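Forum: Protein Structure Q&A
Topic: Joint prediction for protein chains with partners

I've read a bunch of threads here and the consensus seems to be that you should model interacting components together rather than docking separate models afterwards. I'd like to see that in practice. Below is the full input, 509 residues plus whatever partners are listed. Could one of the regulars post the assembled result?
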Amino acid sequence: MNWNICMANYICGDFKICGNRFFRVMKMYWVFVCLIAFGCTGSPDKSGDATSDLKDTVLHSTAMELYTTYCAGCHGNNMAGGSGGSLLKETWTYGRTRSLIFRNIKFGIEGTDMAGFENILDDGQIGNLVDYLWQAQNETPGNVVEIPEVIETSQYQIQVQQIIADGLEVPWAIEFISDRRALISERKGQLRWLIGGKLDAEPITGTPIPHTGSTTGGFMDIALDPNYLNNGWVYLAYSHSQGNYDDELAPATTRVIRGKIEDHQWVDQQNIFLAADSLWVTEGNRWGSRLLFDDREHLYFSIGDMARAADSQDPAKVSGKIYRIKADGTIPADNPFVRTPGALGAVYSLGNRNVQGFSIHPETREVWFSEHGPMGGDELNILKPNANYGWPVITYGRDYSGEIVSNITHREGMEQPVVQWTPSIGVCPVEFIQGNRFAAWKNNLLVGALALEELQRLVIKDGEVIAREMLLKGVGRVRDIKMAPDGSIYLVLNNPDVLLRLTTEETTG
Ligand code: HEC
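Posted by a regular:
Agreed with the consensus. Here's the joint model:
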C-alpha cells in the first residue's frame, strides 16, 4: 500500500493513482513550454523558439524568473496556488525545513503531480528557489510553529498541555516509573527526572559520555526492567566510542547498558550489549535504537545500518538488525542465529535500516515496529524471528543523494511491510493506545514522524491498517510517544524541544 500524505484528502490509503513518473514529467514540461510559448512568463525576451528561450532563461535567470518559468504554472504567479497548492504556508505538508523543501523540488513528491527538477535545475538554482520561497513566508503571518491547546478529532476533543516548554535539549525518550515520576533522555548525553509534572533542574550524573560524532547519535531509548520495583535496573541505549566522542572518525557502535539511579546518581553500571571492537565503525550514522521488554522478559533493541547498508544482511555484522537478549544480557537459547558460525547470537531479524519505534499489540502480543526508510519507503512491520526485512536489497525508497538503492520492492524470503510511506514521513515512535481515557481508540496505534512532523492514529484489524487519522501536523518532530499511567498520551517533540500531554475529560470506566 502506498500512502501519500495529503492533508486535504487524508482519509484512506490510495494506490498510485497519479500515473507514472514519465507522464508527470511530461505534464510539467508542457506547463512551462506553454507558458513561454504564450508569452506569459514575464521573461524579458519572448522572441525565438521556445527551446532557445528556455535555455536562455535557465542560464541567466534570477530566482523569481525561475519561479515564474517553472513553478507559477501550477503554484500560481503569487504563490497562492493553482493546480498545485499554495506555497504561502502555515503548514508544509511535505516538510518545512530548508533541506526537505530542497529535496521536494529536486526529486519531486512521489504520488503527486510535483515531478523532480533534478535534470532541469542545478543545485544552486534550486537553493535560490528555496530562499525565494523562504523569503516569501516571512511576509506572511503564521510561519511560526504554534502548538494548539485543543485538537479536534473524530472522537475526542483533546486538550494539549505543555508539560515542559523549555529546558530540554533534543529529548529522545520518556519512560514512566510511577504516576509521579518519569525519566527523560536527552540526545547529547543526559538523563533527567520529571517529577510531579515538572522537569527537575538537576541532571543525573555518572552516566557515560555518548559518541556524538554524527548527526544522529547520542543517548537514545530508556527502558525499565520488568522487575524494576524490586531491582531498580534502568536500561539505556546509546552510541558509544572509546574517547574522541565528537570525532566522526572515532570507531563507534550502539551499546546497551543498565544501571540504577540513586537520587541524581547513575550507579552500578553493567554492560548489557556491546559488540567486539573489530565490528565498530567509523563515520557511522543511524544507530537505532529503541528498547522493549516482552512478556517473557526478553529485551529487544535495534541498531540502525550505521551507514553500512549492505551489512544489514550479514548476521556477523552489527548494522541494520533487531536483537533479542535476556535482561542480564545473555542470549536466549532459541534465538535464530545461536548456532550459526560467525553470526552474532543476539540477532533476531535482519535487513532493518533504522528501527526507532517498538510497541506490543495489547491483544495479539506481537511486537510492531517502525523502520525509517531513506527518501521514501518508511515502514511499519510486525516482528518475526529470523525474518529478513529486506534493506537494502528491497526498498520503496531512494537514497538521499537521489541514487537508486534498489529497483525491486519484493523478493521471495523477504518481508513486506504492513504499511509503507512514500514520501517518507520520517517515521519514529509507535505506541498502542491502552487504558480508559481514550477507550474509543483502544488498541489503535499512534505513529510519530520526524521529518513531516506528524502524529497519526492507525486503526488496526487482523494485522492490517484499516483507517487512519492525522492528529497533529507541523508542530515539531515527534520523537517519542508514551501512554502514561493515568491513561494520557505523552509526546516528546524536537524543534521545538517540548514535552506535551494529551488528555480528554476523565472517564469513570
Ligand atoms: C505540474 C505542476 C507543478 C509544478 C510545475 C510545480 N509543482 Fe510544486 N507541487 C505540485 C503539487 C501537485 C504538489 C503537491 C500538493 C500540493 O502541495 O499542492 C506540489 C508541492 C510542492 C511543494 C511542497 C509543498 C508542501 O506543502 O510541503 C513545494 C515546496 C513545491 N511544490 C515547490 C515547487 C517549486 C519551487 C516549483 C518550481 C521549480 C514547483 N513546485 C513546480 C505541483 C507542481
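Confidence is low (pLDDT under 50) at residues 1-49.
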